[in-house]
Specification:
Layout (H helix, E strand, L loop, with lengths): L9 H40 L6 H32 L5 H32 L7
Helix pairs in contact: 1-2, 1-3, 2-3
């Protein structure tokens, strides 16, 4: 392998560019599912602990945090392309698919796990956490 990282391989770039639509669709679906879980759990679990209302500022905060998360997930996606370009000398489709699947499922499940963690914190220490 050369000392130069092969970032300009057209096949690597094209492959990752065609998959980015699937990646963002997964993030969008994950965000919607996370928001639905947040609303449902907020109405059921948090309402038992104290008054709960889904107000506009809470929705806006959720959207802002999800946009920040989307930027971080995009950086993770870019690392996948860089790893592929640097290490995949024989253009292995199998390696690309495994790398994409790992990054995709990590990025899609993190928001849902974060809501689960939030629910855990609220139910364990209800008076010390404000939604």
């Amino acid at each position: 392998m050369d000392n130069q990282i092969l970032l300009d391989k057209p096949s690597s770039r094209q492959w990752w560019w065609t998959k980015i639509k699937d990646f963002y669709q997964g993030l969008l679906i994950s965000g919607l599912i996370t928001f639905i879980i947040y609303c449902a759990l907020g109405a059921s679990i948090v309402n038992v602990l104290r008054d709960y209302e889904l107000v506009l500022w809470a929705v806006l905060i959720f959207v802002v945090f999800f946009l920040i998360y989307t930027i971080l997930a995009s950086i993770l996606y870019a690392f996948g392309w860089l790893i592929d370009a640097a290490l995949n000398d024989n253009e292995s489709e199998r390696l690309r698919l495994q790398l994409f699947a790992t990054i995709y499922w990590a990025a899609v499940t993190i928001p849902v796990l974060a809501i689960g963690f939030l629910v855990y914190i609220v139910t364990k220490a209800p008076n010390s956490f404000i939604l």
